[in-house]
């Protein structure tokens, strides 16, 4: 006698199938791509580069970051532009002292932001206008480069050739569940935007590790299309770059990463993620569908699976589908962690997956109900 499968069970199977398609087409092929695949020769780094850091009251972070940037091994040379965005601490004095010893360090001071404009985008625009070199490399004050080859590795992306280079920015491991969840979210987000771009569907980057040319900035008219939106100096810029037909590539080797310290409280991470997700409303329809299908299939899987727990005839097929999905994400996320040198304890992955998607749902509801955001 055949098992009486319910329509809900077929819906669950569809959710699993959609997730397996993402794993099989995007995640696993990208994770399996060796570090040497498509690598450029050692002399492919190109010409001098302008490294830009925008900071608002980030003196202690700058004391850690700037010496590491100045120690970068990049023979073609680079200038380091620090954009002091209305800081009330001693950022100005610290950077002024550095300019006396390092001729390649330059300071751009922003005293005020015109009403209605995004403070960070306005500050970055001023910094880009003063840059002397064609290739621009960006990071944040609360990051550090993973190695002294960061500039060199990121600049090699331009040799493919490309107009925009997407890098990966990890969070440093620390004890506690929140740190693991933040790192899982970062890995999963990185897996999406890097593997989608690798498949020719770029839609975002992260300002903690992003490079593009001055010509690209001019062609997209800078941040003009979203200068009044708080977020999006990275992902919305990539959206504009794609609409303008610019070439986007991925530089995901571990030596090209940056590392940040994760938020230490749930509230701080909540505010950070609200700011990041707010830009998603401006994504193109195809990108929203591609991301939405992935997020939606995962959320629907969990809701449907919980409902089937109360249907005894469906327990066996439910267990089979749950097992197939669990093995698939276990393998995919573990391999992505090795590929990006950002590995999580494998045993934690199923639990982190559950918590992350329901946290994501709560964030979406929060953004729909309360849209007030602010920059530091």
Explain what you see:
GO terms for molecular function: glycosyltransferase activity. This is Glycosyltransferase. Pfam families: Glycos_transf_2. Keywords: Glycosyltransferase, Membrane, Transferase, Transmembrane, Transmembrane helix. InterPro entries: Glyco_trans_2-like (IPR001173), Nucleotide-diphossugar_trans (IPR029044). The chain has 376 residues and is an alpha/beta fold. The protein folds into two domains: 7-32 and 286-368, no CATH class; 49-182 and 196-264, Spore Coat Polysaccharide Biosynthesis Protein SpsA, Chain A. The protein has helices spanning 7-32, 59-70, 91-101, 119-130, 150-156, 177-198, 214-219, 235-243, 266-277, 285-308, 315-339, 349-369; strands at residues 49-55, 78-85, 105-110, 135-140, 143-145, 164-166, 169-171, 210-213, 248-250, 258-260. The strands form two sheets. Strands 3-2-1-4-8-6-9 form a seven-stranded mixed β-sheet, with helices on both faces. A three-stranded mixed β-sheet has the order 5-10-7. β2, α3 (91-101) and β3 form a beta-alpha-beta unit. α1 runs parallel beside α11 (315-339), α9 (266-277) packs across α12 (349-369) and α10 (285-308) crosses α12 (349-369).
Task: Give me a quick take on this structure.
The protein has 376 residues and is α/β, with parallel strands linked by helices. It has twelve helices and ten strands. Belongs to the glycosyltransferase 2 family.
Number of helices: 12
Overall morphology: elongated
CATH fold-type name of the largest domain? Spore Coat Polysaccharide Biosynthesis Protein SpsA, Chain A
Assigned CATH architecture of the largest domain: Alpha-Beta Complex
Portion of residues within helices: 40-55%
**Topology order in helix (H) and strand (E) letters:** HEHEHEHEEHEEHEHHEEHHHH
Q: Structural class of the secondary elements?
A: alpha/beta
Radius of gyration: 22 Å
Main β sheet profile: 7 strands, mixed
Which regions are unreliable across 5 or more consecutive residues at pLDDT < 50? none
Mean pLDDT: 88
Organism: Hymenobacter persicinus
Family: Belongs to the glycosyltransferase 2 family.
InterPro entries: Glyco_trans_2-like, Nucleotide-diphossugar_trans
GO molecular function: glycosyltransferase activity
């Amino acid at each position: 006698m055949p098992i009486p499968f319910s329509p809900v069970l077929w819906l669950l199977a569809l959710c699993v199938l959609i997730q397996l398609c993402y794993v099989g087409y995007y995640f696993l092929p990208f994770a399996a791509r060796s570090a040497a695949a498509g690598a450029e020769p050692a002399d492919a780094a190109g010409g001098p580069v302008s490294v830009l850091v925008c900071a608002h009251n980030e003196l202690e972070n700058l004391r850690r970051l700037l010496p590491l940037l100045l120690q970068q091994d990049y023979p073609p040379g680079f200038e380091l532009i620090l954009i002091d965005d209305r800081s009330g601490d001693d950022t100005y004095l610290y950077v002024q002292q550095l300019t006396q010893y390092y001729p390649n360090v330059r300071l751009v001071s922003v005293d005020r932001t015109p009403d209605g404009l995004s403070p960070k985008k306005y500050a970055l625009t001023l910094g880009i206008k003063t840059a002397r070199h064609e290739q621009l490399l960006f990071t944040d004050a609360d990051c550090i480069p993973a190695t002294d080859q960061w500039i060199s590795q990121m600049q090699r992306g331009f040799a493919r050739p490309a107009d925009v280079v997407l890098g990966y920015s990890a969070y440093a491991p620390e004890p506690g569940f929140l740190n693991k969840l933040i790192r899982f979210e970062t890995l999963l987000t990185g897996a999406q935007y890097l593997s989608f771009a690798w498949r020719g569907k770029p839609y975002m980057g992260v300002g903690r590790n992003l490079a593009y040319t001055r010509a690209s900035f001019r062609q997209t008219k800078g941040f003009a299309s979203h200068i009044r939106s708080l977020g999006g100096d990275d992902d919305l810029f990539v959206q504009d770059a794609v609409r303008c037909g610019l070439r986007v590539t991925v530089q995901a080797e571990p030596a090209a990463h940056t590392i940040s310290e994760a938020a230490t409280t749930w509230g701080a991470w909540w505010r950070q993620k609200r700011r990041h997700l707010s830009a998603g409303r401006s994504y193109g329809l195809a990108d929203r569908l591609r991301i939405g299908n992935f997020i939606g299939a995962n959320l629907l899987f969990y809701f449907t699976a919980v409902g089937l727990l109360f249907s005894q005839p469906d327990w066996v097929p439910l267990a089979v589908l749950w097992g197939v999905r669990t093995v698939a994400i276990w393998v995919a996320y573990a391999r992505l962690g090795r590929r990006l040198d950002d590995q999580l304890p494998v045993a934690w992955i199923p639990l982190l997956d559950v918590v992350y998607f329901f946290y994501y749902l709560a964030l979406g509801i929060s953004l729909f109900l309360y849209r007030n955001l602010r920059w530091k």
